[in-house]
Amino acid sequence: MLRSEDMEHVTLYFSKDTAKQAITELGNHEMVHFIDQNSSLKTERLPFTREIRYLEKLLSRVSYLNNETVKLTPLAKTAARCRSLDLGEVEAQINKHYIRYAQLRDLQNDTFSNLSRLQEDMAILQTVEPLIDANNKEHFVAGIINKEKSFLLEKILWHSLRRNLVIHTFDFESEELPKKVIFLVFTHFKAKSKTTQICTSLSARIINLNEKRYASQNFLNMASLIGQIKAVYQNNVMTLKSESLCISQQIPLWKYFLKKEIKIYEIMNQLTLSQQRDHLVGEGWILKRNVERLAKIMTFISEIHGYTAYEIKGVITSLQGNKSPSPLTNPKLEKNLGLENKEIENYSRFEENPRFEESGDKESGDKESGDKESGDKESGNKESGIKESGNKEKIKNKENQQKNRNQQNKENQQKNRNQKNNENKENQKNNEKPKFSSLPTHNIDIITDPNTPLSTEPTQPPTFIETNEFTHAFQTITNVYGIPSYKEINPAIFNIFTFPVMFGIMFGDVGHGLILLFISLFFIRYKSKLDNFHEATQILVDGRYLVLCAALSSIFFGFLYSDFLSLSIPLFPSQYTVDYIYPFGIDPAWHHSTTGLMFVNSLKMKMSLIFGFCHMLLGMGICYCNFYYRKSFLDIFGVWLPQFLCFVGFVGYLVFLIIYKWLVTYDYPSLISVLVGMFTSPFHVESSMYPGQVYVQGFIFIILCVTFPWMFFAKPLILTHRKSKDLVDVWMHQAISTIEFGIGLISNTSSYLRLWAVSLAHSQLTQVLHTMTLGANNFIVRIFTFPIWLLATAILLIGLEGLSSCLHALRLNWIEFNSKFYEGHGYDFKPLNFMENDEE
Q1: Which one of 208, 509, 666, 691 is most buried, by most CB atoms within 10 A?
Q2: CA atoms of 479 and 491, how far apart (whole Å)
Q3: Residue 130 belongs to what domain range?
Q4: Is 215 in a helix, a strand, or coil?
């Protein structure tokens, strides 16, 4: 975990017919991290863009069915069952179920709409029939409206008809339908149309009472029709549930298969054609320990699917299988896409890539011959025209054109001869070099040519750092800031110690640490049950071991501070007298002293500075290891050494004064005044703390004055002497780095004082909360304030204070520590695999 694992660059060669099957096998073994060689091309120019879009369309249909159908537990062993499927079969199943489900859903909606309409009509007639005269229905307007709009309807009708109406409303409630209101309006005949318009504008449904189907004699027929439609609706519901159950069982399989196919086509879009345009070439990275495993897998692929080859470090291994290749694409998919000879068309799009040179002159020769034939044809047509017209001027022009054409033909023939000669020479040279198309056809053949490698390696390999359940959370914290560069020292291994320690310094309390300990143990114990339970709890589940380490550190520093929920912990008898030393931590008697807060603050502040110095010194040591590993001795001499001398001379001297003042005596001047005096009057000391202080401080002052010009001029001047390129960028970068280091020398050191500040805030807030609740003298008051204390402890002290301590610890690790050595310009090693589809 200290450094990323070794990588090997691999170049893979596939036949056009078997590329998809070979990539599928490589994805099943999760081994190769493919490099996108067509990243500069637009998506529309990639050969398999249409296939990917069509598969995404099918996937959107599956997602729609997944949202609409019943959610069931995904089927086990999806990957194993998926290998026996075919794209045409999956496509037919998806379209069949999609169309059937859409039809059933539309039929159910139509049936429900008709049923609800008849039920409303039945309720309206049963309600208003006793209130109206059978021979005078022209003055009545009956209908139904949503309940939230009924009051607005009454108000508008009263206002617009000037109260010349009578309106009755009745509530209509049904289990399957939303709440509505039946209304009956009586007004004069001229205002009836106006009333109808107002009701319709408010989305009310009006029924015509004069229609025969709404007569009272047809109630029985309407009730019978409602019963029949109910039966049809129930049948539709059962059929839709059955179809949903059938679809939901297949959805995990379909989603896995379609995402797998999309990944395969995306990888195929990253391949390029060989220079001979007869094979596909893919480049990628594999773990060095998997080289032998890759050889076995490629041998297996060649036996199953045909000819393949791979190249590692200029060594090409050719593998020839016995079986004939299987087709690349599915004919049904071609038919739906409206393509013919899609495979040839796709790979012809590879040939349009301007990054490849034209390999043969046959096409140009054919083109020239075609031009010649067309020219002859045109000349023939012109001759016939001349004979018909008998124009002498045209004949002369034709003779001149013929002469020019003959001269051009001679020149073209001479060019073709020269090109053929050049081709023969190039072929003779190329026959001496290893060509993919000329590889032998026996089982295994290794060809080496270190002078002419067939592929060029990218500048930086991907980063792969293997983690386990314990280290995964710490590595995730590091990756959020930046993924380590290839073979760069990984700061996550140091964060396992530094992050909990800084958290404990700020959150040091035995009681609160025990609460965090129980929480972390709970998540560790029930991890399998709490996985994917909720997004908020998932963070704690993933960081359960980080919380465990933070809890143990809080308990340790709680004993060191002698603090248990703002109460002192008398582990040993008090030694609150001069010349006696308490065995461990702070003497609990300080909690009851009038100067206790001043003493504890001074102690925590100086502890923070000492820890910050050790933390940043560790970062500078890691920086030296990185430079030495890369054999970058110029950076060691021109960058690291002056920074180290400057850092130790300033911050290290401050830490020395703190420890010396602790060990020797307390009756010495303030450390701040000593540091200020070292710069204002470096060769004069008013009150000396130790013998020879003026010489030591003068020597440190000289070092500080020398190191900054050293940092700025050393590396650029040496590179100028070596006549390196981009010297302007080097000077600018070095100037910015020097200024940044000078400012950070003070700001980074003072930033560690946040450890003392947050610890002080935590302890004082705990003490105030205890004093106002459980610290009361009245026992009844304690009983009533206990829930308040418990709630405030959980939310304020454990939740907010714990989150604050976590964020401050992250900042110190990311900025102050990582800035001393960490680049973080790497990218993850992501081999092609299909197991992520199951996890999704």
Answers
A1: 509
A2: 10
A3: 114-231
A4: coil
